[in-house]
Amino acid sequence: MQIEVVTKSDLDQLHRKIDNLAQLITNGIPPAKEPANGLLTRKEVQKKLRVSLTTIDKLTKQGLLKATHIGGRVMFKAIDIERNLESLQNAKYRK
Hints:
By secondary structure, the chain is of the alpha+beta class.
């Protein structure tokens, strides 16, 4: 059996982390900041929609997501992604 010493500084650090978690629970997680140019990368869209990059590609090919090509990169308008996300959430409750 090993004995570990916990210092006051360790306890203070733990207390700050617990306070931060309590604030997040009380106030909710702050929304992610949208990029200044209003465009999202495939990776950002993946995180926002919680799907794989393959699914993003399939949705783009099917015309459900509109992609913009800028300098060899595939970008999506943030407003379009928000609209698609809202329509998908609304469709869940229509069934």
